[in-house]
From TrEMBL:
Compositional bias ranges of the Polar residues kind: 735-760
UniProt-recorded name of the protein: Uncharacterized protein
Family annotation (InterPro entries): ClpP/crotonase-like_dom_sf, PDZ_CPAF-rel, S41A_metabolite_peptidase, Tail-specific_protease
Any Gene Ontology biological process: proteolysis
Domain Tail specific protease: from-to ranges: 370-582
Length: 789
């Protein structure tokens, strides 16, 4: 037997995708070399190619060309009509796994504080069909336009787990060169204005403090800075909340502490014109030339026009330049000590070796009983300076030691800084929840979209793991299947009430909700390795198995506050939901559009699991393998004629995928799981609820220069005499109002018993009607295969 199973690595991640970019963003831009007279070239790609061959040998990793030239080159690549129709067909099959397609279609988020629609309705499958028609009837001028339209369409769903990135996006990437922006309020009360970050470096330079006053940007390309940036944010970022979108444009202090995040302004997806004109309040104007950079691995040899560009970069594995690969390896650190957070961070009480988790103690009268847990990333990795080999275990131990140390030192308050956090490993989010609230049983109820391929896959996994002959024949194979797919076997997970499912059909349904079909709500079972752990069995969550009993609760719920900037997605959203809904922990949102009023802390996907395309294809391949193995070739042939076979045969997406991330054979994925609230009879995915934070703060010059200023402002707002942004407290959707426990009040008694049931919600989960229709159809297609269930 040959099983080639990729272990299903846990993922609820939504990363800002900026691979392999040049550094030194704070310095002045060097003018582009005028290498050639424009007239020398008949084709824009020929000129790009000539610039590349003239500059590549001296380059340290990237070659810059003018943005207009790059755009013209991309737009000269002819439409690959036949190939694009295949791309769309394959994407549509995989998109069946996107959990909230029908909610996107409705644009259900209609209940924002201002009564406006926060997500425009979008019919993803219908629009994909329209693009395919357009490709065939000559609507599109270039291959770039087609791929750009597809990627914008997926982004418009506002679920940053859902994406597709084509190869054509890789070789030339747009850049607002060395013009990273920040959005800051003078005093935390007045509305923020937009500044050029390098001006701040001059203003807050230890060797020459305070002798430069930055001037705010008033207009960009003649349009008010607020309008320009709101439009830019809408088309460039994939978050569902407008304030989160705004924040994603700017340098992110928290993400910069463990990596680099200069914001989408620096690395726009879209062409932003040949130049950008910034007019400042002091009357000055700066015109910058926009650029595109040629990524470190692109090889333009032989590229002379759009067709040769396509041949070089859009037909599978790409040529790589030797020197640049070597240059990248040399840059790798060889230090053996733990890293230190980058940017304006104080020295830490602890750091996890990839800086995903960092602990601090505040100093100063009034603040000295406060610990800060900064988590820019829920996906820790093993870095330098640790002997641990499993990042989840390293993190668990360090957080546990930090909480114990904090308690022993008499720290009473905890600020959890989740700014910049786009998610990570699901189990790590649950682990932190259990370390904070060991007495709570985390709800974490989620469900899949029910459709043919998912049903057959779920059935096949259950059959395989239910087969004792297989287990006896080769335990290694059995264990690999269990590690990879055990969490898809209904016997391993729990229902909404925490009990076992009674049968496959009890679990699978399909159940109707909002005109679509879904599986039952299911919950992880951390006492049962295959049903709890999305990352194999090398880690036990605090409070379960070898990690039981958990240490005592370190902080009272009312002594904890979340600090969030809307970036929070995925695992970060799962964690936020658990602590907000079950423990009543309150939230402070930071930044957002320059306007008063409330803001959401979680502005990214609230979906509970990304299904990367390669994983989905592999899962379908495994389904065919299991079936051939247990039921014989004829059953496998039948299955091959279903959606399972069609997805297993995915080929064009491999050819046309971005190769920027060398580990990913198809770039992108879907959101597989809706995250739901306990006792919510409507079963609306959390993504489609508006949930304001309890208070909002603006970043200031001082907090830009020193992160502890923000943490102290958060402390003051929650427990001291600080104030929140005008109009930002008391929103009806904030947990302080829902729980009726005032945000800042001596007498506020937090509800830590998990009593936050919303009015009118009484039915248990998965109360939708069972829809017999689909199951009959699928069972017929599957023939004998499902009988054994
Ligand atoms: C081509 O197809 C698109 C998408 O369906 C449609 O909007 C457009 O009108 C069509 N154009 C022509 C020339 O048929
Ligand atoms: C401070 O200013 C000096 C002179 O302009 C410059 O060389 C130095 O890099 C600046 N330091 C920082 C931290 O920005
Ligand atoms: C005006 O402000 C901008 C942005 O801070 C700065 O670059 C420029 O030097 C200032 N101009 C004058 C005349 O002070
Ligand atoms: C508190 O003070 C100590 C000792 O000076 C310092 O190492 C640490 O970085 C400070 N912590 C914060 C959060 O400012
Ligand atoms: C890692 O192990 C080595 C060898 O046992 C030891 O010297 C070192 O102190 C350990 N490092 C850490 C961070 O525990
Ligand atoms: C079990 O299967 C694996 C992978 O196919 C193989 O390497 C191993 O030898 C098998 N073990 C037995 C006992 O057959
Ligand atoms: C369900 O679909 C039907 C027919 O398309 C439509 O009339 C109805 O409004 C939809 N209901 C919901 C809840 O979307
Ligand atoms: C998890 O707990 C189980 C049961 O106590 C134990 O056998 C296993 O070794 C533990 N795993 C880890 C990684 O500690
Ligand atoms: C269990 O697996 C064995 C070996 O692959 C296969 O022969 C048998 O048909 C399977 N049994 C069932 C009930 O699927
Ligand atoms: C808040 O309290 C601190 C410490 O008691 C005091 O220094 C500060 O002036 C107060 N601020 C306001 C705005 O009242
Ligand atoms: C939950 O809150 C409601 C309304 O405040 C109250 O009537 C009820 O007793 C509470 N239930 C529990 C279990 O605390
Ligand atoms: C959970 O329990 C409630 C109350 O006993 C019941 O109405 C509901 O059907 C149960 N839900 C599931 C999924 O079993």
């Amino acid at each position: 037997m040959h099983y080639s199973l990729a272990v299903f690595v846990a993922a609820a991640h939504a990363h800002y995708h900026v691979p392999n970019v040049p550094r030194a963003v704070a310095e002045d831009a060097a003018p582009l070399p005028t290498l050639f007279a424009r007239q020398q070239f008949a084709q824009p790609c020929e000129e790009v190619s000539a610039s590349w061959s003239a500059l590549a040998p001296e380059s340290t990793g990237a070659v810059f060309v003018g943005a207009k030239l790059a755009y013209d080159c991309l737009n000269s690549v002819p439409v690959d009509a036949e190939g694009d129709v295949l791309v769309i067909q394959e994407l549509k099959r995989l998109a069946q796994f996107q959990s909230n397609l029908n909610y996107m279609k409705d644009g259900t988020l209609k209940d924002g504080p201002d009564g406006v629609l926060h997500n425009e309705p979008v019919d993803i499958l219908g629009e994909l069909d329209a693009i395919a028609t357009g490709v065939q009837n000559g609507t599109y001028e270039s291959e770039f336009e087609v791929q750009f339209t597809i990627s914008q369409l997926l982004k418009s769903g506002g679920d940053n787990h859902f994406s597709w990135r084509a190869d054509i996006m890789d070789p030339l990437r747009f850049l607002h060169d060395r013009f990273a922006l920040v959005s800051l309020s003078k005093d935390g009360k007045n509305l923020p204005k937009v500044y050029v970050q390098r001006d701040l470096f001059s203003a807050y330079n230890a060797s020459s403090p305070g002798n430069f006053t930055p001037s705010a940007i008033k207009t960009i390309d003649g349009k008010s800075v607020v309008d320009y940036i709101n439009d830019f944010a809408t088309t460039n970022n994939g978050w569902h909340d407008a304030d989160a979108q705004w924040n994603r444009v700017f340098v992110n202090q928290a993400s910069n502490s463990n990596g680099e995040d200069f914001g989408s302004w620096t690395y726009p997806n879209n062409y932003v014109g040949p130049t950008t004109t910034y007019a400042f309040e002091n009357g000055s104007t700066i015109v910058t030339e926009n650029k595109a950079y040629i990524g470190g691995t692109a090889d333009f040899t032989g590229v002379t026009d759009g067709s040769t560009f396509f041949a070089a970069f859009c037909q599978g594995a790409q040529k790589k330049t030797q020197t640049q690969n070597e240059a990248r390896q040399v840059a790798t650190s060889t230090s053996d000590v733990l890293p230190t957070p980058m940017g304006r961070y104080p020295s830490a009480a602890f750091v996890q070796s990839s800086l995903a988790f960092q602990g601090y103690y505040l100093n100063g009268t009034g603040y000295d009983k406060t610990a800060v847990l900064a988590i820019p990333d829920f996906g820790p990795k093993i870095g330098k300076g640790t002997n641990e080999t499993v990042a989840q275990i390293e993190t668990q131990k360090m957080v546990r030691a930090f909480f114990a140390d904090a308690v022993s030192k008499g720290k009473e308050k905890l600020i959890i800084d989740l700014r910049g956090n786009g998610g990570g490993t699901i189990d790590v989010g649950f682990d932190l929840f259990k370390q904070l609230f060991p007495d709570q049983d985390p709800f974490g109820g989620t469900r899949y979209r029910a459709h043919e391929a998912h049903q057959l896959f779920s059935a096949a996994v259950t059959s395989a793991l239910n087969n004792n002959t297989l287990k006896a024949m080769n335990e290694t194979v059995y264990d690999t299947i269990e590690d990879s797919y055990g969490v898809f076997d209904y016997r391993n997970v729990r229902d909404a009430n925490g009990s076992s499912f009674t049968s496959f059909w009890d679990y699978y349904g399909p159940y109707e909700n909002n005109n679509d079909t879904f599986t039952s709500i299911r919950r992880y079972n951390y006492s049962n390795i295959p049903g709890g752990y999305t990352s194999g069995s090398d880690f036990n969550v605090t409070g379960y198995l070898s990690e039981a009993p958990a240490p005592p609760q370190p902080f009272k719920a009312e002594n904890i506050i979340l600090v969030q900037d809307g970036s929070c997605s995925s695992t970060c959203a799962i964690f936020s939901e658990l602590v907000r809904e079950q423990a009543g922990v309150q939230q402070i949102a930071v930044g957002g559009r320059p306007q008063y009023g409330a803001m959401q802390g979680v502005g990214g996907t609230k979906g509970a699991n990304i299904g990367n395309y390669p994983f989905l294809v592999q899962a379908m391949t495994s389904t065919l393998q299991f079936t051939a193995e247990y039921l014989g070739e004829s059953a496998a042939l039948k299955l091959n004629a279903s959606a399972v076979g069609a997805i297993a045969a995915t080929s064009q997406l491999y050819i046309r995928s971005s190769h920027a991330d060398e580990d990913t054979s198809i770039s992108g994925g879907v959101n597989m799981l809706d995250n739901l609230r306990q006792h919510d009879a409507t079963e609306r995915p959390l993504e489609f609820y508006y949930e304001a934070a309890d208070c909002r703060l603006f970043d200031t010059f001082k907090s830009w220069a020193d992160v502890t200023v923000l943490w102290k402002a958060a402390y003051d707002a929650k427990w001291g005499n600080g104030t929140c942004v005008q109009g930002s407290t008391g929103d009806k959707t904030s947990i302080s109002v829902v729980d009726n426990s005032p945000f800042n009040g001596e007498t506020a008694s937090q509800n830590s018993s998990g009593n936050s049931t919303e009015p009118g919600q009484s039915e248990g989960a998965a109360s939708g009607l069972q829809s017999a229709g689909l199951s009959v159809v699928v069972a017929a297609a599957m023939g004998v295969a499902l009988l054994m269930l």
